[in-house]
Amino acid sequence: HDDHHHDDDHDDHHHDDDDHDHDHDHEHGDYDPHVWVDPVLAQTCVDNIADGLAEADPDNADDYYDNAEAYKNELQDLHEQFESALAHKHIDTLVLAGHDSLQYLAERYDFEIHSPQGVSPQDEATTSDIIDSIELVNELGISHVTYDYFESDNLAQQIVAESDAEEVATLTPAEGSTPEWNDDGWGYIEQMEEINLPTLEAALDAH
């Protein structure tokens, strides 16, 4: 009887996950502005910027479009790096202990994001959310709990300390910078290549 009860709990757990995924998709459509984290969608952003600049400054329109094409080629190369690196991942769920700003990236490269918080930086994780995250980490054998570079790592550290995970790892929504990154000449592509890609490879066991 106990085993049967455990199975019921297990089914309920997955049912809750399904509900979470449904809400997650809904939030994505309504609230997540971070479209640029997907290198393919970022190319459309570049086109839109070039169109706006060309309209405002027609005399230099050719230069804007040439620069846009060159940058879109870099973005396409970036996309192919991610696609190749994550093609053989062994884990399909990323635990992001911070606000969920990488949904478009997850959709592009076919993984799920479990966030105890949600899309808004103002959202706070509840005790129940944290327990769910710890259980998920243990259930899926997740070794890395990720967090946003520009946010606190306290929640990620707590989940690692109370679960079987081994370490925290940083991600960035590529919407900010640091003096060090500026000194190194890092922009969007470098943040994606040097921070997000290695972290995703580790967290999704894609090595």
From TrEMBL:
BP terms from Gene Ontology: metal ion transport
A Pfam family assignment: ZnuA
Keyword Endoplasmic reticulum among UniProt keywords: no
Residue spans crossing the bilayer: none
Coiled-coil ranges per UniProt: 61-88
GO molecular-function terms, A-Z: metal ion binding
Classification via Gene3D superfamilies: Nitrogenase molybdenum iron protein domain
Entries under InterPro entries matching the protein: Bact_metal-bind_prot9, ZnuA-like
Alphabetized UniProt keyword annotations: Coiled coil, Signal, Transport
Chain intervals for the UniProt region annotation (Disordered): 1-31
PANTHER family tied to this protein: HIGH-AFFINITY ZINC UPTAKE SYSTEM PROTEIN ZNUA, HIGH-AFFINITY ZINC UPTAKE SYSTEM PROTEIN ZNUA-RELATED
Family recorded in the similarity comment: Belongs to the bacterial solute-binding protein 9 family.
Protein name: Zinc ABC transporter substrate-binding protein
